[in-house]
Design goal:
Length: 114
């Protein structure tokens, strides 16, 4: 069985690469800290697979996050402090999992890679 995590980044913000990487890291770590330890252990043993995908905007991001929550998956939503390129309180990205790849793919498999 494969496990992975998906990180959803808002395409409408057009974040610089460094900012995007930092926000994605925040989302990944936060979601892992909220996850079931057994899932995390299995995911780590298989290389901690992650994919980064585009969502259109904040509304789209919350749609996928809510679907994941409804399916019992761990999630994270990152709100920026606004010290650099976006306004304080801007929701930049989110993460789902780690969880079974088949469950995550059902929700996010149609999204385009970043």
């Amino acid at each position: 069985m494969e496990y992975k995590q998906v990180i959803l980044i808002r395409a409408d913000l057009k974040l610089p690469k460094g900012k995007m990487a930092a926000q994605a890291a925040h989302a990944s770590v936060d979601a892992v800290l909220k996850s079931d330890k057994t899932l995390v252990k299995k995911w780590r043993a298989l290389g901690m697979g992650k994919i980064v995908v585009k969502v259109q905007d904040e509304k789209d991001l919350y749609k996928y996050i809510q679907e994941a929550k409804n399916s019992g998956m761990s999630t994270s939503v990152i709100t920026d402090a606004g010290r650099t390129v976006v306004e304080p309180g801007t929701v930049t990205c989110g993460a789902i999992g780690p969880d079974k790849e088949e469950y995550i793919d059902k929700l996010t498999g149609s999204l385009k890679l970043f």
